[in-house]
Specification:
globular, eight-stranded antiparallel β-barrel, alpha+beta, about 450 residues, Immunoglobulin-like, about 30% strand
Amino acid sequence: MSELPDRPDLDQLRRQARELLRAATAGEPEAAERIRAVSERVTLAGAQLAIARDYGYRSWPALKADVERIRSSASSLPTAERSGERWSFGGAGPIRTSAGVLVPEALLVTADGAQLHGSLMPADSGSPQVTRPVLLPGRPFARWGRRRRARASARVMAEAVGDWARSITVVDSRERAYALRAHGMSGRRGPAGEPQGPMSVQLGLDPRPGRDVGWLEIRDEEGTATRLEPSPRSVARVGQVIPVPMSRAERTLLDRMRWLVQLRLTTTREVTDDMVTRNCSAALAKTTEIQRTGELDPGSQLPDQLEKVCAVLTGQRPATILPPAWSRMLAASGAADGPSRHCDLAITLPAIAGITVHVDSLFSGPECWRLYLRAVPGWWEYSADRQRKWSPVTVLAEDDLGNSYLSTFGGSSGAPDHEDLSLEFLPRLDPLAGALTLTFQGGGEQLAVALPLTTTGR
């Protein structure tokens, strides 16, 4: 059984029902089975009932009424409290629990509550390989089916994680007690739904810790413990919105080049050498097509750079033929010794491509680092049939040592007026880096954010 988020979105639940119906009518066996388990006919009403039952409600009207009640209660809060300052806790180490090893990565506190993000290596997890999602083009229904099958196979485990979360004790510096509850989990699973390596978990924390909390300690049943410390504040400098200094054709080629490197950095069992080779071939073909149209400046170096990147990614040439920032990025992909850092940023950026971004927190770990953001009104744009989505904003990063980092989507939750999300940056943060420059690009514009990695007090 799934749990509603703290701020459930009725439109999002309606979309889930429509997607379930669409998949069932397209021949997806599991989708049709879910609807027929609660309804004799494969209809929208049946799909809505299936969604309601997934969340533990006897009917769609009962689910709708509860969502409207929750949203009404939240909207009755004072505006300052609903959209108030956010803060975070981090710095905890791994802790061994009855379910496996828990790594608490980030505790984010908002006006609506608190959520702990982390990873769990189950005790009998099989392969320890860390996996990351990779978005590939095409086959929307196949992707939908895989997501639904993964959710179905995770239900039993999600219930077990919920029981395990309730067995963990959380206390603060004043010995106030908190309760954990399961919000969500994801990761690779085997044929029977068993975990295959680390699982990403999100746990709600009740009540919300206040600004007066000196630390939060997580204790398991056997008495082992780890502490989360309040994140210090880092003062960032936001630049002006300026035009992107390149043509549309050049941006297209540069985006392709970045995506290919990102594909290599996020290589998992699904991303084979053959897949990298095929995508390199497609990128080179696209380059030739753009050159034929005359859109690209004949003097542009990007076609040559893209060809070199493909030669390196397919093993035909050494990485030394690339610019230092690119070669160092690929060399660092195998390292896993990034510094453990966490800081609050609390900065609001001017709108780019119609999206206003609030950058809340930064967390860095051994393998990657993350930004936690809010996007107003949302992060995604959708195709007319809602089968494809993309973000009009790209976020890049470079440190003061000349190392470059690429961002991948790390998950999100929707709300009527904004979207909470995280971006994962690869490779891991250089331990010697003292500052970062974040570049937000979209709609032919860009702005830079200068971020020192030194921090001030709370």
